Amino acid sequence: MKLILKLVFALTLIGTVGAAVIGDRSNSRCGENEVWSECPSCETSCEEQIKECPLACPVPGCICIDNFVRNEGGKCIEMQSCQIGNKEERCCADNHYTTTQWRALRRQQ
């Protein structure tokens, strides 16, 4: 009986330490102005600052810290740094272009 208790304790300890090490490794992969999230559900970008959040959690990963958004290059920048501009998008079979204007919005706190 004592052997079983020792084995359960050892497995619990290994699992706890292993989870902490994996969490630290994941967080160290995040870039500047990013943080690791087990449920990165609603990350915004310069072009899409208001976004509907899914109910289910996607795959864990790095997200931008508060008041930062992803730019077109994939870096997390301050929301105020988003450039006002136009984005051309190709559409449909006749390959005509549409232009979408976007600008930086400020989050209300």
Automatic annotation (TrEMBL):
Name under which the protein is recorded: TIL domain-containing protein
Signal peptide start and end residues: 1-19
Gene Ontology MF annotations: serine-type endopeptidase inhibitor activity
Presence of the UniProt keyword Signal in the record: yes
Assigned keywords, A-Z: Disulfide bond, Protease inhibitor, Serine protease inhibitor, Signal
One Pfam family per UniProt: TIL
InterPro entries assigned: Ser_inhib-like_sf, SerProtInhib-TIL_Domain, TIL_dom
Top-level taxon: Eukaryota
Start and end residues of each TIL domain: 30-82
Protein species of origin: Steinernema hermaphroditum
